[in-house]
Every structure is written in C-alpha cells, then in structure tokens.
Amino acid sequence: MSEAILNVKGLTKNFGGIKAIDNVDLDIKLGEIVALIGPNGAGKTTFFNCLTGIYTPSAGDITLCHPESGKETRLNGMKPNKITEEGMARTFQNIRLFPTMSVLENVMIGRHCRTKSFIPGAIFRGPATRREEEEIVNVSYEILEKVGLEKQVNEEARNLPYGAQRRLEIARALATEPFLLLLDEPAAGMNPNETEALVGLIRKICKEGHSILLIEHDMKLVMSLSDRIFVMDYGRKIAKGTPEEVRSNPAVIKAYLGEDVDA
Amino acid sequence: MFPVKELKRSLLISLWFAFLTFPIMVIKVDPIERTVIWRWDNLFFVALGSFVISILAKVYLLRKERRAGRKKVKKELTEPFVQRILREPRFLFPLSFAVLTFALLFPALFSTYQTNIMTTALMYVVLGLGLNIVVGVAGLLDLGYVAFYAVGAYSYALLNMHFGMGFWAVLPIGGLLAAILGILLGFPVLRLRGDYLAIVTLGFGEIIRLILENWNTFSQGPSGIANIARPGFFGMQMSFDAGITYIYYIVVALVIFTIFVVNRLQDSRLGRAWLALREDEIACEAMGIDRTKTKLIAFSLGAFWAGLVGVIFAAKTTFVNPASFTFLESAIILSIVVLGGMGSIVGVIFGALILILMPEYLRALSEYRMLAFGGILVVMMVFKPNGIISNVRRSYRFKKHPSKEVIEP
Ligand SMILES: Nc1ncnc2c1ncn2[C@@H]1O[C@H](COP(=O)(O)OP(=O)(O)OP(=O)(O)O)[C@@H](O)[C@H]1O
Ligand SMILES: [Mg+2]
Fold it and tell me: pTM (2 decimals)?
C-alpha cells in the first residue's frame, strides 16, 4: 500500500508581508525517508512548525492519514499536543530538551500522551498506576538503549555532549510512538563519526515502521538516506524527486550556488 | 592574589552605596529645632561596611569558581550533606520518626505561647508547599497567592456566621472554593508567561483584598468578621489552652497530609509534566502535553492548599479582616519557596520555619524584619540561587534486565 500518510496541499505562511512559505505541496508515503532541503532561510523550519501546530498556516491543507486505522485528520489549527497524539512527532533545530531533568525523565515526558494516570492515581498510587509507571520507565529505557544513551540515564540532559543531546531529542520524540517522525537538522554540529552512527540510527528507526521527514544541510547524509527529496528556496518548492534527479536539477544547483552557475 | 580590578570595583560599589544611603544615613532633619544635622561619620561607616562586604563576597565567589573548576568529577562528594541523608532511607526513616515524635510532643514540652507560634509556622509550611507546586514545580510565578488564602478564611467566616456551619464541614469546602477560583482565574491568565503572569496575579490578589475591604454587606468591610467558632471535637467543650493544642495537632496532621500528597504528585506523570513545563513550554507541547490543562491543575491544586490553610487561620484567630491578606503575605510565602529551594519539599519546610520562627524568637530584630527579609533573599540569590536545599532529581538504576529494577532516591 503506497497511500500517502502525510499530504500537504498549497501550504502558505505569511509573517506580516513576508511569505515564509509559499504554496508548497508535499507528500510522504508509508515507510519512506523523505528529505526537505534548501538554503538557509528557505522556510524549512517554518514548514515544520506549521505541520506540528506551533504556527497556524495562513492557507493550505495538511492531512495526516493513520497507516493502520486509515483515519484521516486535518491538522490545520490543531494544538501541537493533539498533533503529537495523532502520531506525528518532531525534534528541534535548536535543541529544546528539558535541561535540568535527567535523560530518562526527558524520554519519560514523551510517554505522557500515551499514558493516563491522573491526580487520584498519583496520590493513591494503586496497582494500575504503578504498572503504568513501570511501563513508562521500561519503555523509555529501551528507547534510550536504541539510541545508545542507556549509560547516561541519570545524567542531567544539559550535561550531555551535543551529539548525544540530538540523539536524546530523537529518543524523546520516539517515546510518543509516532508513525511519522520529523527531524530538523539532526546531524547539525556532529562530527563525521557521530553522523555515520546517526545514519545507521535513522535507517533502523525507519525499518521499525516510522516514516521520516528530515531537514538536513549535510548533502552526503541526505543523498545516502533519502528515498525522495523536496527542495525549497525562498519559501517555494523548486524541485522534487529522487536524489539523482535532484542532484542534476538546474534549479537546485542555481539555488545552492547562486547566479554564478549561469555566468 | 586578589585582583586589583576587583578592589577598584569594590571601591566604586562602596562609593555608590554611600551616595545612595546619603539621604537617610547622613541627613537628619530635626523638625522642631528646624535644623539639619549632618552625620558625616555614618557616611564613612556605610562606605567602609559595603567595601568590606563586597570584597568578602567577591573572595567567596572567586573561591567557589575555582573549586568548581577543579573537581567536577567528584560530584558525589560535594553533594550536600542534607541531600545525602535524604537519599538514604536508612537515615531518612529514623530522622523523620524523630522529627514526628518531637512535633507530637511539642505542646507537652513547651508553653501554649510557643505552641501557638509553632502552629503559625506550620501553617506557613503548608502554604509554602502549596505555592511550591505552582512556583517551584510548574514554574508559574504567582504573586497573588494570598487571594486563595483569603477565600478559604472568608468562606469559613461567612459560612459560620450565616449558616452556623462547623469547621470540619467547611474545611473541604474552603479548599474547593479556592481551587475553583484558581481554575476560573487560571483560564484567562495562564496564557501569559513569566513577568506578565506575575503582574496579573499580583493585581488579582489586590482585587480580592479590595473587594473584601469595600463590599461591606458581603464581608463587613475593614472591620472584619469576629467570633468565628473554633474547631469542634465531637461537641466537646474545650479550654482555651486545649483549643490551641487541638489546632496545633490539626495543623500537624495537615502538614503530614500535604507532604505525603505533594511528594506523590511530584513523583508522578503529572509532576514530571509540571517540571517539563517549567523548563520548556514549546517542547512540552510538541511532546504531547496539554499546556493549559497541566498549568490549570497546578494552579488550582496550589490554591486548594491555600484555601485549607485559610479555613484553619480563621478558626485559629476566630477573627478575619482584609488586613491579614495583603501583598506582603504573598511575598512572605513566595520568599519561603525561593529561600527554601524551588521544588524541594524539605527546603520549603526549612524556609518556612526559618522565615516565620526567626522574627518571633529574635524580637529585637522584628522592627527590621522586612530589611532582614530583603537582605537574606539577596544574599541567598547571590550565593545559593537554588535555595537552602535544592531539589534532587530522582535517579533510577537498571541491571541487565531493566524490567523490574526501579530504585527510589
Ligand atoms: N516567527 C517569525 N516571524 C517572522 N519571520 C519569521 C519567523 N520565523 C521565521 N521567519 C522567517 O522565515 C524565513 C524562513 O525561516 P526558517 O527558519 O524556516 O528557515 P530554514 O529554512 O529553517 O533555515 P535554516 O536552514 O537556516 O534553518 C526566514 O526569512 C525567517 O526570517
Ligand atoms: Mg531551520
């Protein structure tokens, strides 16, 4: 089944007079790794913010289709936490962990929307609550093992090295059980070894049934990972296709290298 | 050893201080003789004093910096003594048992007067723990907390006056009314962040006080409501002294109840969400936490405790008037939380005991209470910004199989 799990039609976002995103279409199919690239300021992060409800789009439609139930949800105007509940989670370009909470607790926060104990549960701590807490801890720990942070569970998140913080963000997002994961420049600030490990991690996550949309400036990573690539410049989509198609697309080369190419 | 630059700086600070305090410390107007007395020697003492203090502070900070740079690895060792005790159940249990025994024997060991003061201090412990949920854990700066305290006190005063309702019936009602008011206020206000939230809650606290002061038909205005019934004990007649002891035990029970509940709440799914909310709201929402709902719960739970203590306050003093619910009261409760340690239960208990008992036992200081307050807070913020006892994150330990191994701090 190659139904699209995310369908974006004519998405536009204005900031005052600026069109940060201008009529962009995008779709992701189940099991795909899709990359969104473009020069600095192209509007990629703004695009993510519109998808995840942090910004309200000025125009256009965002539809999320749950791969199992087939339920279609229009995301425009929904609150970020509801969108996460629908099964789409993200990481942030400028890392936004909970700095003074421990690594494990950061991931446990991700479990929040999949658990439900409330005030009475917290106070009386009955068997159901205890079971739920145990489940939260165990699932979180397993996810940390997956991203290779199981040694630092009790460390404060802010004390982790940069690359580990990026992986922790991925772990936290995974804890919300997304079927679609949005990664905003996951390799930024990583050294070549870390980047290589990250590629492996993303592949593994994808195999486990999470489709991925990623923003990245590291072209080597993008070309080796993605099934398809969308290219943005000045808020508009200027190209889409497989890595080979995009690599040889004149519009893309022009956007990246400036006017010099023509001259 | 000590940089000359810092010396210069301290000199400037002391000059600035001398200048600032010039009008009050040097000029003294004698309105009867119509003369001005210039007390130049005061200027000298102020300058010298602030110079010495600023140098001492600088030396301390320098040494602390150096120490921090040297041994980051030995974190276990530098962990404060108190926190190590709190972490280990084998110290913690006997200790809490001793404290509890002392608390229970207190009225027998000390005079009624002392018991009464202790009751007040313990009431502030509960208020502090309640506000701690809002400010310390969820990070919502609430400067109008006293409003909920007033709601509790006046609900008992009014329900008792008009309907003759007893203490035990009103206790939960007062708490619930305060919690409901918390939700009603929270809806419009909790969209705001940081400073804006602080200002609006400050205004709200004052509004409640002004309503109580001016709506005479409702609250009897500034003259307040007198002759409120003390708590009953199965209809038994109690002497004045016995009444005080009785209220003391009620408050002790409330303190224990509060500690239990707040501790459980902090270490739960909800408590983690509050902490996360304090750290980063946007990330929180993106991780599926309903921001408004989570904040509202924190706000109204905090208000609930203020309401409970309000009812007890009315029953203890048998008299309420708006003057008991000024901004100063909010400021004191907030100082308790900040001084004790944001988010730390033990810290807040210490904070309350210190801030409330100290002025009582240092009567000589009582005139300078506000000055001492300000001074202590400034010093704390400089040297120990996390409070007396800062919050410890719970740590988890896993063996090979992570399945069952959860270990409490
Ligand atoms: N909240 C905002 N208000 C006004 N303008 C904004 C806002 N957010 C983004 N923009 C503008 O939108 C444009 C796109 O920014 P965006 O952060 O989406 O770029 P990007 O493609 O993620 O760039 P980078 O690769 O540097 O991360 C920029 O010109 C930016 O100044
Ligand atoms: Mg960006």
Answer: 0.85
